[in-house]
Amino acid sequence: MNLEEYISIPPYSLDKSQKEVLLNNLLRDLTLHHYHTCVEYRKMLDAVGFDPNQPFSYQHLPFLPVRLFKMLDLKSIPDSEVAKTMTSSGTTGQAVSKIYLDRDTAASQTKVLTKIVSSFIGKQRVPMLIIDSESVVKDRRLFSARGAGILGFSMFGTQRVFALNNQMELDVEAVAAFLLKNQGGPVFMFGFTFMVWQHFYKELIKQNIHFDLSKAVLIHGGGWKKLAHESVSSEIFKQKLFESTGIQHVHDYYGMVEQTGSIYMECGEGHLHAPIFSDVIIRRYTDFSEASIGEKGIIQVVSVLPKSYPGHSLLTEDEGILLGEDDCRCGRKGKYFKIIGRLKNAEIRGCSDVYATRF
Amino acid sequence: MPKSEDVAMFMQPVFNNIQFLFPKEFQPDGFLKQSADEPFSERVIEFLNAWSQQLNKEDQIRDYPDVATFAFFCRRANVVHLKNHHHNPQTLRIGRGMVFHIAPSNVPVNFAYSLVAGLLAGNFNVVRVPSKDFAQVDLILNSLQKIAATSDFTDIVQRILLVKYDRQNQATAYFSLVCDVRIIWGGDDTIAQIRQNQLPARSFDVTFADRYSFSAVNADKFIVEDQPLKVAQNFYNDTYLFDQNACSAPHLMVWLGNETNVAKSKEVFWKSLEQVVHQKYHLQPVIAIDKLTALYFQASQMDSIHLEPFRDNNLWRVQLDTLPQNIDEFRCAGGYFSEFHAQTLDEIIPIVNRKYQTMAFYGFDKEQLEAWIRKSKPVGIDRIVPIGRTSDFSLLWDGYDLIETLSRNCDILAK
User: Fold this and answer.
1) Does A104 touch chain B (CB under 8 A)?
2) Would an 8 Å CB–CB cutoff place B191 in contact with chain A?
């Protein structure tokens, strides 16, 4: 089965054994492709003694730390075929990841994202409210993962309205007008978790505004780090939003610029789900062996999409817990898991600051 | 030459943002007008011995082997021994005056050694201690306060000023303007940053920059070692004790000797180290990722390296077929070693650059090592010490004789 055919399979329809066979084939092909077209990748596999010509199951595939994409320009295509370079939103002053996409890879990312998202919000495009400021997309200097995320999800919406003005203040009139116009119909809301909480929810409370969002679906992502400081959990987030606006369909997602498209969406049970296009493997930091269900570890992600760069098997810097496989109450097949958060930076004992500047 | 107005201008606003750890109050006029002293004065030796005794009375010292080592360093017997080595009674040496020490931000005890070197050379000292909080710093500070309060060492303790402030502070500019020698411990960036602060015309910097260290083991000797675990324990102290992040911690292991002995020695050595590491080391999860990143980065930049199969992420070894010129750029904290089998010590010389500090050895004798250095004259390698001794503080550091550097020679020509 080729990638095109695989993408046409519904994203949460395969059980463990079906998925494993297909993933193994696609990931082996990808591994061989990168091995032969990306010299750095070949040297890396050689260094750990991994021979991609031998049959292997994808659990044994080497994983590259995402940080490597900040240190090296890794691509499996000639420069002339680079259609788009994605960069991560690193903290100011830090190196950013550079992900090189050709037309095919970018197109399959879009297809897969569409498959996943439409299984949550329906195939019909609906009016879209973006919980951010238009400047994030417009101003090229600010263009980042945030901008890319908004653009990526924008294809699911019509009549796009930005809920925040350029000063990141809630544009109450614009939102009210949008809701009035689409009264009673479904709307799609998208934003970054922190933005939704800080600049949308908190403002509604502060200004004592009650919008009716009972027909809306909110998809948000970007992580909980900032909200964790305010002790806002996913449950509190959903509960408070519901109390204020009546919104019932709120879905977090886990994704990264290094594997755009094959994202992990949160179901109604509050679990993140691996679609058939990607998978998570939780690894023990002590020896990188695979952790059991319920055991905390570092998250490895594999995806069938990265063809223009060797990013089909990556080790993130996030910790998570595998909750189960094929048996979530929401009915979706595949692994489901939760994120604990970003790994703590090392407390370095030593006498030089070379470490901090190197990575 | 800075004018006194320049210095005066700094005074009040600067001092408001400095934490004076010892003493609690700073009188610039009194402090800066002190005179220099002869190196190894009897009073300083007495004071250091008292300090050592005070430290040994602290219960907590048992939890901090680095503080215990410092206390051991300060005792009379050791200092007198150092005096015999570093002090020639025939020459007339006097301290330079005020030494401004900028201690490394992430090694707790170095500030104290730096201070002791300054005192022994006959100077009064301003020491910027690490901005991070360390129990070791508190322990050393408490003991100093106790001595100051209970014994009569006013003449010595008044030569010590310990301060703490954050990076952006103007205090560095101020103390730089009034010092005779500035000692900077830190990475290359830190040094460049501090050097932007002007020094008086005759003053100078002593810099302890980022360095690289390696180890060389003679397998023909190691093969008959009857306590390999002890060697491994010593090597652990050189490396893992400070997460392999001290400048003196080896990152490269060069094996010498015949093929069979090297193969056997490697097995015994690393197995023993694994055992020690397993008992003592606590790996931080993110360091596992650091190692994987370092390995793949190294693989992408070098030809034919390979990772030795590992038991766990505590200890990773990268085998090299050749010794690349830039091997010092490929290192990682927390138990990551590149490994090479050399036929002779001379094979190491081409990779040695100015960054090379310590060579930790096993199974060579002094004459052999000395002859090797005399013959090959490398641009780097400042210390060659047995495995286990890399972090021992010495008054010869990074190629400087600290007593000579921090004092001046007064020449008297008379009949």
Assistant:
1) no
2) no
| Chain B nearest CA to A172, separation (Å) | 42
Say if residue A158 is in the same domain as residue A60. no
* Domain range list for chain B: 4-209+398-410, 212-394
Residues A132 and A218 in one domain: yes
Q: What confidence tier does B332 reach under pLDDT thresholds 50, 70, 90?
A: very high
Same domain, yes or no, for A61 and A159?
A: no
- One-letter amino acid at B139 equals L
Domain B4-209+398-410: state its class: alpha beta
Would the ipTM clear 0.90, i.e. be above it?
A: yes
The CATH number of residue A12's host domain is 2.30.38.10
Q: Any chain A CB within 8 A of the CB of B295? A: yes
Region of A261 please: left (phi>0), alpha (psi -120 to 50) or beta.
left
- Provide the whole-model pTM: 0.87
Tell me: the pLDDT tens digits for A124-179?
A: 899 999 999 988 877 665 556 677 788 889 989 998 999 999 888 999 999 999 99
B107·A349 Cβ contact <8 A: yes
Mutate to test the interface with B, among A38, A354, A358 (most CBs of B within 10 A): A354
Cβ separation of B243 and A348 shorter than 8 Å?
A: yes
Expressed as residue numbers, the domain containing A179 is 111-254
Do A16 and A132 fall into the same domain?
no
> Is the CB of A359 less than 8 angstroms away from the CB of B289?
no
Domain harbouring A179, CATH code:
3.40.50
The highest-confidence range among A39-53, A166-180, B230-244, by mean pLDDT, is A39-53
Residue with structure tokens 């310590």? B358
Name the nearest CA neighbour of A340 among A234, A205, A241, A242. A234
Q: CB distance from A51 to chain B under 8 Å?
A: no
> Does the distance separating the beta carbons of A346 and B287 come in below 8 Å?
yes
List the end-to-end C-alpha distance of chain A, in Å, as a whole number: 40
For B60-96, write each residue's pLDDT tens digit.
998 888 899 999 999 999 999 999 999 888 889 999 9
Q: Structurally, how many domains does chain A consist of?
A: 2
| 8 Å CB contact of A346 and B286 | yes
Alpha-carbon distance of B389 to B400, in angstroms, equals 18
Distance between CA atoms of B253 and B361, rounded to whole angstroms? 10
Q: In the numeric block, which tokens belong to residue A23?
A: 């993933």
pLDDT at A355 over 60: no
d(CA A309, CA A34): 7
**Residues 82-141 (B) with a CB less than 8 A from some CB of A:** 104-107, 110
> Homologous superfamily of B212-394 in CATH?
Aldehyde Dehydrogenase; Chain A, domain 2 (3.40.309.10)
Residue A260 lies in a domain: no
